[in-house]
Amino acid sequence: MVEYSSSPNGERFPLPSREDYTRESECLKELVQYHRSLGREIVVVMGLGFVGVVMAAVIADAADKNKNPIKFVMGMQRPSTRSFWKIPWLNRGIAPVSSEDPLVGTMIDNCVNKKKTLTATFTYDALKFADVVVVDIQCDYVKDSIGNVRDGRADMKALEESLEIIGQHITPETLVLIETTVAPGTTEQVAYPIIRKMFRRRGIEHDPLIAHSFERVMPGKNYVASIRDFWRVCSGVSEEATRRVVKFLKEVINTEKYPLTVLDRPIESETAKIVENSFY
User: Fold this and answer.
1) Whose CB has fewer CB within 10 Å in the chain, the N or C terminal residue?
2) Per-residue pLDDT at 156
3) What is the pLDDT of residue 279?
4) How many Å apart are CA 122 and CA 39, to the nearest integer?
């Protein structure tokens, strides 16, 4: 029985078959080879929600001083009946999120149809090609009683499952950048051990390169600017991870006008986001 995913306007898209996965993997391989030949870094953004889809567009829009694109971005979304429709929409250049900011739609259309630096996919094989993986998997806070935020917990299941999958596919040189708002300590005490364990199962002795830099997303009239033109903090689990995340962020966001703050440990970046959220 074929399952379908319905878009907000009622258009129905069949979920991919086994043959679709094979074709998709071959297509991505060709795209990656083409963009690598142009000297572009390959980036996979995990999660095409209101954070991931605009972050993917901002990265895909990044250019050098001569305005030549420097990144090729694959937005990755698990093919479920609830959200698979986002993939064909994005591949048409249509924003799968609504926004007051006209730049969201314009940027996505431009990167997909003109620059051709942005695509969306449903296969985890995309992770095999990534130089950088940006994790934008939402973690909900589950409250067991109304009006008592202490009586609740962060739902980390989807994030932990995604980290396992990432660890099963990426190369040892891939930088994993976690943007998700997480509990302090998650990057070092949850993400790092999970990916390291997957590496060891694959016979990889290298330790993973993982960093945290929380998302700066304020949906509204300045949606894109809240990501690209705003202050950021970051930190990696090692000196190399920190060096890589600093280099990456300086290439995709406006750090000249909005300087990047580099912290000693990811737990500091994670805590900064929790403190910031407490003011909203």
Assistant:
1) N
2) 66
3) 66
4) 25
Q: Which two tokens stand for residue 159?
A: 């994030």
CA atoms within 13 A on the CB side of 23: 5
Query: Which structure tokens are listed for 96?
Result: 């799968």
CA 144/CA 150 separation, integer angstroms: 9
- CA-to-CA dists, residue 272 to 13, 213, 226, 249, 277, angstroms: 40, 10, 17, 18, 9
Q: Which of 70, 23, 77, 66 is nearest to 58 (CA)?
A: 70
- Rounded-to-integer distance, Cα 235 and Cα 111, Å: 29
Q: Which amino acid is at 134?
A: V
Burial of 195 (0-12, 13-18, 19+ CB in 10 A): buried
Give the mean pLDDT per block of 10 residues along the chain (280 residues).
91 95 97 98 94 95 96 95 96 92 95 98 97 82 55 67 96 96 91 98 97 84 91 95 98 95 94 74
Of 172, 167, 177, the C-alpha closest to 246 is 177
The rounded distance, in Å, linking the Cα atoms of 236 and 227 is: 20
* pLDDT confidence of residue 90: 97
Q: Are 223 and 189 in contact (CB under 8 A)?
A: no
Kindly list the distances between the CA atom of residue 190 and the CA atoms of 90, 159, 183, in Å, as whole numbers in the listed order: 31, 10, 10
Q: Which residue has the tokens 């995604």?
A: 162
Q: Are 133 and 166 in contact (CB under 8 A)?
A: yes
Q: Are 212 and 271 in contact (CB under 8 A)?
A: no
The label of the residue with tokens 């051990």 reads 193
Q: Which two tokens stand for residue 149?
A: 């935020």
Question: For the chain, what's the residue count?
Answer: 280
Which residue is associated with the tokens 């900064």? 272
Contact 49, 138 (CB under 8 A): yes
Residue type, 30: E
